[in-house]
Amino acid sequence: MCIRDRSNAYDTNITLTPSSSYIQPNITIANCGTIQISHKCERDFNITILNTTPPGHYSINISVDWTNLDTSLGHNFTIFNITVLSNPVLNVLEENITGIIAPGNNTIISSFTVESAGNDVLNDTTFNVSGLDQFTITFEPENISSLNANQQQSVNVRVSASPDQSPGLYNGTINITSDNGGYNVLPFTIIVTGTNMSISSQPENYTAENVTFYRNETFQIFVNATNTGNTTAFNAYINLSLPQNWFSNHTNISCGNISRGDSCSYTSVSYTHLTLPTN
């Protein structure tokens, strides 16, 4: 702010009067003291437009008051105009979401929160899922037609899993898009509960070359069973079904309870006896 006078001005003050409380000067009155003829007074003001300010036109009345040599009072003013533009912003409070569902179920497993974080109404917010085609996923509400500034809306995520859906972790994303406030990509993990045991053997196959009417042939099989599900497998067993005339030191091994990611293994010694050539 700069003022200039053509005669001495005494007790000079500059006063700022905003048209709205959304407009905040760092100070509203600055004193210039005495301004001599043809001299000037300059003062800097920092103006803050608050983060909740709606779009629109605002102003600051800048006035100067002083006392003349004859003790009469002087006054002048100017108007400083401010335009705040519309700036709708979409924000999602969660960084990611996770839900748990059992095969064959249809239920709400998670939720997220849409926030209108700008200074204007957020319009036509929609939701789309990528990477989780194994499931039927819907949202409650299906969309948000409008959300006023500084408001939030919770959205439930309903998931339907088929009865034969395999246990495991499934990862995808929810794309949350508004018509005027941008978009947000939310990582979404679905955990399908249940147990699933993988089983492997070493070697995977064996060729018996020296079986005769009088001589058996013996070999070892290492068997490993691993819980690849996401819950404990209770009362697990490994069974070895042998062809006719085959024998083993073990055909049924109790593994007890196998926690997620744990394994049960054993080595079986098997031999053939009076076996005809075949696969």
Give a description of the structure.
Helix content is 0%, strand content 58%. The chain has 279 residues and is an all-beta fold. It has a five-stranded mixed sheet, with no helix packed on it.
Quick rundown:
The protein is built from no helices and 23 strands.
Layout of SSEs?
Layout: E1 2-4, E2 9-18, E3 23-25, E4 29-35, E5 40-42, E6 47-49, E7 56-67, E8 73-84, E9 90-92, E10 97-101, E11 106-116, E12 122-130, E13 136-140, E14 144-147, E15 152-160, E16 168-177, E17 183-192, E18 197-202, E19 217-227, E20 233-239, E21 246-248, E22 252-258, E23 263-272
Parallel strand pairs: 10-17
Antiparallel strand pairs: 1-5, 2-4, 2-7, 3-6, 7-8, 9-11, 11-15, 12-14, 12-16, 13-15, 16-17, 18-19, 19-23, 20-22, 21-23
Detail the poorly predicted runs. Answer: 1-5
Percent range for β-strand residues: over 45%
Helix and strand composition category: mainly beta
Radius of gyration: 39 Å
Q: In oligomeric terms, what are we looking at?
A: single chain
Measured as a percent range, the helix fraction is under 10%
Largest sheet: 5 strands, mixed
- Going across the biggest sheet, name each strand in turn: 10-17-16-12-14
Number of helices: 0
SS elements, strand count: 23
What letter string, H or E per element, gives the SSE order? EEEEEEEEEEEEEEEEEEEEEEE
The residue-averaged pLDDT reads 88
- Overall 3D shape: rod-shaped
